[in-house]
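I'm stuck. Protein, please.
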Amino acid sequence: MAVMSYAAAAAAGLSAAMRGDERIVTLGEDLGRGGIFGQYRGLLEEFGAQRVIDTPISEATIVGAAVGMALTGLKPVVEMRVVDFALCAMDEIVNQAAKNRFMFGGQGRVPAVIRMPIGIWSASAAQHSQSLESWFAHIPGLVVLAPATPQDNCAMLRAAIDCGDPVAYLEHKELWGLEGEVDVQASVKLGSAQVARVGADLTIVTWSKALHWSLAAAQLLAARGIDVEVIDLRSLWPWDRETVFASAGKTGRVLVVHEAVQVAGFGAEIVATLAEHTGARLARFGGLRIPVGYAPGLEAQARLSPEAIAARAEALIV
């Protein structure tokens, strides 16, 4: 075990995977200098420019090239810098990568991992601060992952590369410096949630950076005598219904928390599924349906907080 940042853990997991499989290549902007967050640091020096490929600023070209690489036997890891930029490559992601295996009867597969960091990025305004995970969860053929810790960003990236299907890999723009213990050799099963905190009175289901706000909210609620269980979903598609159902059956109350805009967010899918299969009392809490402002005061209006999450959870107890 070593203490690593979220960014360094991703680089460690990716480099370990590349050492074990020469078919793995990376491509995107600024990879040669280690990526804008350091998530590729050291890879060019170890693997060379044939496998760590700097590309022009053209997201459609980057993903289109990756689809072609995957269909010819390579395993590309694609860097979009932030999810907002991936909107320029949605045809390649949605109509090419996601549908190829189905449309050609399994003759072709697209084992591409498309890294698209989500979330509010401080002082980066409306076009660089979106959480669009529900878009990708809606698309048949895509696996959708959202690691919240350094350990998961290492293990889940390796699992994503190995899964054989296109993966929307959604890191968070403001978690890159988060540090934690990492076992580079540890594995994780895609589609499995993790119970980050055990509790008896209420369940919070969450993912990505909202996990950390939710754990802080659970601490606030503990001081008020409310025992909260926190589930880090980790994988949005497939999502771990069994773990969530079991917790809902135990606590009888579930709050789904996500940074993305609450309207039509993935939390609605979880709440609807729980409503169909459990008798738990349910609620969701997400971002306001507003663009994220550049000015600090406006940006703050779009952010969640542990205090706001705690207040919404406490309302379920009453």
